[in-house]
């Protein structure tokens, strides 16, 4: 954590615990991780984090006519390849999503410097975005009511930051005033834990059942009365006979009978196992085809709309709210996480999209090439469209003109 010491400010002001509406203490320890021992849980989060890591964050500005332009800014320079010295953009987004699912909260600290231009205007120049993983979070406020967040890290370092300067993403934001998760600001995984415990019990039972069924193969019936020592000697002779047998025929005398026990392994039925697994998958909004990678366009679209899109919207709004002032947002500045790299469409669907959007002149030649996985070409920024489409008003005028011509004849 020493790396971050020069990144955070520690203003020495008189502050007190923030007061919440429900009267609870604003101190939250991070965080329960019991459910993440499950392989199914980890696979679900990994699928979500991997897909989200394909996003391309951009600082854009929308003018009064609705036209959007990508701004030449320090934010876009960082988002293009490396939001901080330790991570690529893909690493950064993946870590943010993992922390969000682990803790139901994630804090991102944007580091910036204040620059003054020749006209005296002060602007923020961002130098990095850092996802944080504190062990304890405390909310405090000063005499003016301004909210601060004190973050404690594993090495006992503590840093106090203005809450307005921290990007805070929440999951399952419900009963707590400021934190995601349950009433205590921690992941509320009790319902999921019950399913995982049942699943673990079933799997352990399967393991023991298989071992027990395969360990006892037969019974040697000795048709005479003998003491324990003679029984052990007789059993040893029988086992030696089994070890020497190469023909598959085991010789026995009249004193012994061998009763074969056919292995009959009792397993839990398939429907029960699938029910338990699907309970976990449904909890995270991940279907079996998405987990295995064998999905259709429709299945991925459902996964995107149910699971990924809410995260995408949350990322854009949280970054925009923290990075820009009210005035900057009023003039159209925002952060958008574009999902163009989520290439889930089949080849047939891509060709249909090219035909429809291309004929309407909605795509440049380079965008069409990118959709098929090809690199851009020189001069590929031009747009082409089909002449088979005309303005509706022109079509009506054309039809009326044709009608008039027919009437004159």
List keywords for this structure.
19% strand; Phage/GTA_portal; alpha+beta; 409 residues; five-stranded antiparallel beta sheet
SSE layout and pairings?
Blueprint: E1 15-17, E2 27-29, H1 39-52, E3 56-62, E4 68-70, H2 74-81, H3 89-103, E5 105-116, E6 122-132, E7 136-142, E8 147-152, E9 158-162, E10 167-170, H4 190-215, E11 218-222, H5 228-244, E12 256-260, H6 270-284, H7 288-292, H8 297-323, H9 326-330, E13 333-338, H10 347-359, H11 365-371, H12 392-408
Q: Could you provide a short overview of the structure?
A:
41% of the residues lie in helices and 19% in strands. It has helices spanning 39-52, 74-81, 89-103, 190-215, 228-244, 270-284, 288-292, 297-323, 326-330, 347-359, 365-371, 392-408, and strands spanning 15-17, 27-29, 56-62, 68-70, 105-116, 122-132, 136-142, 147-152, 158-162, 167-170, 218-222, 256-260, 333-338. The longest helix is centred in the last third of the chain and has 27 residues, at 297-323.
Distance between the termini: 89 Å
Note the beta-strand portion.
15-25%
Q: Which spans have pLDDT < 50 for at least 5 consecutive residues? A: 29-33, 246-251
Task: Please tell me the total number of domains.
Answer: 2
How many helices? The count is: 12
Rounded mean pLDDT score: 77
Q: What is the H-and-E element order?
A: EEHEEHHEEEEEEHEHEHHHHEHHH
Pfam families: Phage_portal
Protein name: Phage portal protein
Structure explained in plain terms:
This protein is an alpha+beta fold. The protein has two domains: 2-188 and 285-328, no CATH class; 345-408, no CATH class. Helices cover 41% and strands 19% of the residues. Helix 1 crosses helix 3, helix 1 (39-52) runs parallel beside helix 6 (270-284) and helix 4 packs antiparallel against helix 6. The protein is extended and about 115 Å long. 18% of the residues are buried. Mean pLDDT is 77; it is low at 29-33 and 246-251.
């Amino acid at each position: 954590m020493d790396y971050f010491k020069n990144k955070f400010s520690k203003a020495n002001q008189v502050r007190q615990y923030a007061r919440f509406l429900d009267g609870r203490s604003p101190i939250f320890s991070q965080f329960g991780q019991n459910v993440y021992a499950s392989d199914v849980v980890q696979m679900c989060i990994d699928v979500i984090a991997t897909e989200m890591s394909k996003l391309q964050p951009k600082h854009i500005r929308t003018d009064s006519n609705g036209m959007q332009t990508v701004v030449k800014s320090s934010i876009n320079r960082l988002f293009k390849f490396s939001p901080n010295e330790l991570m690529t953009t893909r690493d950064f987004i993946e870590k943010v999503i993992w922390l969000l699912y682990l803790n139901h909260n994630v804090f991102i600290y944007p580091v910036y410097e204040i620059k003054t231009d020749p006209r005296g205007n002060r602007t923020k120049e961002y130098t990095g975005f850092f996802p944080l993983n504190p062990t304890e979070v405390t909310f405090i406020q000063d005499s003016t009511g301004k909210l601060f967040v004190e973050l404690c890290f594993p090495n006992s370092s503590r840093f106090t930051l203005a809450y307005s300067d921290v990007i805070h993403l929440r999951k399952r934001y419900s009963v707590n005033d400021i934190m995601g998760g349950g009433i205590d600001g921690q992941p509320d995984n009790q319902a999921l834990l019950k399913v995982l415990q049942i699943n673990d019990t079933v799997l352990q039972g399967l393991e023991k059942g298989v071992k027990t069924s395969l360990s006892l193969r037969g019974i040697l019936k000795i048709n005479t009365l003998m003491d324990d020592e003679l029984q052990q000697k007789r059993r040893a002779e029988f086992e030696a006979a089994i070890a020497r047998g190469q023909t598959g025929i085991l010789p026995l005398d009249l004193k012994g009978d061998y009763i074969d026990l056919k292995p009959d392994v009792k397993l839990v039925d398939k429907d029960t196992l699938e029910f338990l697994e699907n309970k976990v998958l449904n909890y995270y909004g991940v279907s079996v085809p998405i987990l295995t990678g064998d999905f259709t366009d429709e299945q991925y679209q459902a996964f995107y709309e149910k699971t990924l899109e809410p995260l995408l919207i949350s990322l854009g709004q949280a970054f925009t709210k923290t990075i820009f002032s009210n005035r900057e947002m009023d003039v159209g500045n925002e952060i958008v996480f574009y999902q163009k790299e989520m290439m889930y469409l089949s080849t047939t669907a891509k060709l249909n999209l090219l035909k429809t959007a291309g004929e309407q002149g909605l795509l440049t030649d380079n965008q069409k090439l990118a959709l098929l996985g090809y690199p851009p070409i020189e001069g590929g920024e031009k747009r082409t469209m089909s002449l088979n489409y005309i303005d509706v008003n022109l079509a009506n005028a054309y039809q009326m003109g044709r009608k008039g011509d027919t009437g004159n004849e």
